[in-house]
Request: fold
Amino acid sequence: MFRVNVLLVIFSLILHTDAVSAQSGAKRAANQNSRLPPSALLLGQSKNDANAGTVTIMTQRVLNGPLMSAALDLSTLLDDGERFEKMRILPVVARGKMQNLWDMLYLGGIDLAFLQTDTLEYLKDDPQIASIKEKVRYITVMFSEEICIVARSDIKSLADLAGKKVSINARGTAAAVTAPVIFKRLGISAILEYEDQNIAIARMRTGDLSAHVFLLAKPARPVAELNGDGLHILAIPFTADFEQLYLPAKFTAADYPNLIPPGQDVQSIAVGNILAVFNWPEGSERYRKVARFVEAFFSRFPELHKPGFSAKWKDVNIAAQLPGWTRFKPAQEWLDKRAEHEKSLGDKFKAYLREHGVARGSASEDQLLQQFLQWKDAGELAGQPAEKLAVEQSAAVPKRRAEPEALNITKPKRLLVVAKAPLADQSLPDGGLITALVSNSLNRTEGRAAGVSQFELRWATSALTQLQFLLGNDANDLSFPWESADCDRPNDLAPASALLCDNAIFSDPIMQIVIGLFTLSESAFKFDTDESIFGKTICLPQDRDLSDLNGHGRNWVLERRVNVMRQPSLAACLSAVQRQEADAFIASDLEGRYALGRLGLLPLFRMAERPLATRGVHAIVSRQHPQASALIDAVNRGLAELKQSDLYSTLLRRHLGQKWDAR
Reply:
């Protein structure tokens, strides 16, 4: 260990010396290099070129963790072959994220570092906090990791740790930052000690420690390997004490089967991460180098969503803001320029919509624009005239409906499945209930055996793919699951539903679902009469129509009897109700219970006994598909046969009887 530490110190000194030497000779090298041909540079005749484009990132020593994967992904994406004077990403391994901060501030040659979002909260009583805040800037918010407190059998809850010895891992690690904040906010006076996890677990087994705190993305190997002596994971309820700093999370038996009994969950919290940078003087060489990194990273960010890179990148929103922190100026300027570009493009897009009579009102128009811009940003409209393509494809209706055609059964059907658990999700058996029902319906039509392997399933994890499907011609044969839309009330439709009404053919209902109101268990609100909802604030996700509140002669929103809060997602609505900013949120019975179960919040919510509405779940085909009528006919005929068989009810029991909140 002593030899390793000495080597690390020597490496740090060499790195610092090389960086200083590179900076002092930068101008001299630039003059020399300007007279050298590119081939000479590739032969290594100038060491300064290797430093000119190199950016170092401090990461964790958890080699299979998400932050190390992120650093390696950035290196894979941005490294420019041998021409390192252009761009090279060099990950540097440290013990933990507090160590990352100190290294970024004081160790020569370090440009960037992964830090935790609760770092400033941890340091708020430090005399140097003002200076630290001035020296640190963030580029983007990254993904989160979960807190896991493993305790002895005699410790049943967090409160039992009062006055007990608790290890919070070694100094400088992630757990050593978050654990003191958690215990302080909960008012639990535990005796916190710094101890490496292996030594801490050994002390727990002898009774010298009561618990140890891990902060690792689940499932974490060091936790999964624990077993015996009654060790278990303590629950950390997500309360108001944590809302400003953390996110709700939970562990299941699938995550840690040695510590959690089958069928049980343990609530916890998750800690966010950021990519931070030292606040170099504007115009300095280091400032310009990191600014070039930001330009390359942000411009090519959509490529990180492609196969081969960590799936965690899909959880990152580079424009997300972090209260209490200041963004690195070049990063903020890049985002501002993109916003200006989108506004300019948006003005043209809206004008084009109005000119061609496609817009359905300002609210729907704005939402459609936002989906369009995000889709365009993902590179799905590369090289095409965006405004014209979107309008002409979405507004186009064929002059006559195609006659039924025989299906080409020799070519696999291309099924676009929108992940909407528990009805459809790639992680569920058979891809979920609706996937199983549709595939079995098509199999019956074509005389095939049951199963989904004959079909090419294209999974979409975002509502943005709605536009991709509708604006395409025959890129996909069939898409599901989609709830029925009240096409006779266009002003109540969300943008996706409006496009579906204009451009899609709906199948017969695959199944019926109940739409309900979900509220807090202790809430006095009961939807037992129409009048009971008057004056209430109801949260709707952006992709859900107003038809449930305005249809069937209700007009509750139209007549302002009900206040509507729009949120980006169902999870955001759930959070709004939990904070009591809304009285209830609207979701299908299946989707609402599934989301609550995944978050471990089912006991905190209840669904009103009186249903709000019922909806059919359908498959759809684009009207522009050359075999549109034949495809829908195949689904409908197969579905009718399936419903007459025992297999339909068997599939319902099999899928709806599962414990959905298991990973």
